Amino acid sequence: MTDEGNELLVDVADHVATITINRPAKRNALSWALMGRLREAVADAKADPAVRVLVLTGAGDQAFCAGADLAGMADGASYGDLHDARGEMARLFRALWELGKPTIARVRGYALAGGFGLALACDLVVASDDAVFGTPEIDVGLWPHMITVPLTRSMPPKKALELMMTGRRVGAVEAERIGFVNQVVSPADLDAAVATLAATLRAKSPVALKLGRDGFYGAWDLAAEDALRLLHPLLTVTASTEDAAEGIAAFRAKRPPRWSTDDEH
Predict the structure, then answer these.
(1) pTM of the predicted model as reported, rounded to 2 decimal places
(2) Of 4, 65, 142, 226, which is the most buried if we count CB atoms within 10 A?
């Protein structure tokens, strides 16, 4: 399916929803409206029981997303409207973290500013070796406030601060070394690598993945004792599910498990 203007493409196949930012002429830059439509597409994926994995990418070979469309974002808008609109990226990040299903950023070319944050708001990042990451806001007198959270959650905080202060761009190999990219492949192998990872994830128990992701993101910023208090009951809930019983039975019988949601599709 497509949205109005074809700026967002959504395809669901084999339990994988692929959302493509389709503005290649603008390096897939984000408008406020497009961020809202992205959030709606994520909500649709959350509500669709056929979707087990979400892949987020950009059209063309130049950019995953080059950040905000600065040329059009402030035209004719009041201060109050702009302030509220700037919260749209935070709402999009929350939608991704609360999705309950694994997310993969497929990155080719530039992932800059808000596009950098959008990639790191996904669970996993697979990048082509020509991918470039960076926070150029400082060079135009701005600061990447809204992407501070996904950046500092994805690499050592002082490394994130260095990138934000200098605007230095980072290639895919260095990004993998720093730790915010999970896998680097050639451009020719990018689609296959993403498909293989998505296939691995969609074969896992959707119930266990949901509970596990909820626990992971819920415990992230907590002190150790508070995190353990959160995770302890989640372990009991996970161990009590039909999928846990099926998984253990399948392990004992040396057969592939059949998850409870497999019968629904």
Answers:
(1) 0.93
(2) 65
